[in-house]
Amino acid sequence: MATSLSFIEYFRSLLAMLLFMIILLIVSVLITLLAILTWGKTTNWIVKTFPRYMAYPVLFMLGIKFKVIDHRKNETPPAIYIFNHSSTLDIPTFLALGLERFRVVAKWELQYLPFFFIIGRLTGQVFIKRQNSEKAIATLLKTYDRLKRDKLNLVIAPEGSRKHEGRIGPFKKGAFRMAIDLGYPIVPIYFDGNDQLSLGGSLFSKSGEINAHIRPAVDTSDWKIETIEDHIAEVRGMYLKWAGVEG
Q: I need a labelling partner for 119 at 20 to 30 A (CA). Which of 47, 91, 103, 148 fits?
């Protein structure tokens, strides 16, 4: 993780934060109008189109060159997408991916920010109370029918929080349990560079390069709840390898 920034990087970061807030304001208004005028029928187009236009100006302002490297040979059917979570910088880099038909599992507290509340609710994102595991599970169970019916992808950070020791933190069970319940494959996304450029808790960031690696889907068709810990360890091991660290 970055420990210090130059004056130029501090200045650019402040401008990037201001720009992000302005973009959120504009996007929340546009999404509200679209949702009302189309009765919510443009949701999938919104989640594919708007995030990239929100993210790329911010990354440019930060002086970050962002590249998506898709290692998949074929298009993936509905899946659980997971990514390593180490900093606030993960937000614009995730948005810049341009994933289709996705819904995000996010912490409940994000709704306290008006823009995230409006955008999240109008586009059907999933907010959970991580401190209350029973309510979190109940919320996730309610999404199953909607995900299958509409052939939606789900996105979740298995570490749960950016605050953890090491480059790759412990993985929680949620994403893996959902993959088993839904019969969905897991598509790992590895952000290479986020933790090295960001100061962690904000968009203060060094300029540099970030590569987002979308890895081939992990087949979960023979996974069992009884062996879920083994599956979690296997997938986390992939991330440790990509990060160049040992478990």
A: 148
* pTM, 2 dp: 0.91
Q: Which residues contact 23 (CB under 8 A, 6 or more apart)?
A: 53, 54, 57, 58
Residues 34-70 as b or e (16 or more Cβ within 10 Å = b): bbeeeeeeebbebbeebbeebbbbbbebbbbebeeee
**Which tens digits make up the pLDDT trace of 198-215?**
876 788 999 999 999 999
Q: How far is CA 215 from the centre of its chain?
A: 15
Total structural domains within the chain: 1
**Does the pLDDT at position 129 exceed 80?**
no
Confidence of residue 24 (pLDDT cuts 50, 70, 90): very high
Q: Is 238 within 8 Å of 94 (Cβ atoms)?
A: no
Please give the C-alpha separations between residue 11 and each of 88, 110, 152, 209, in angstroms, as whole numbers.
17, 26, 39, 18
Count of helix runs (H) and strand runs (E) in the chain: 8, 7
Domain extent for 147: 7-243
Q: Is residue 12 part of a domain?
A: yes
Domain-embedded: residue 1: no
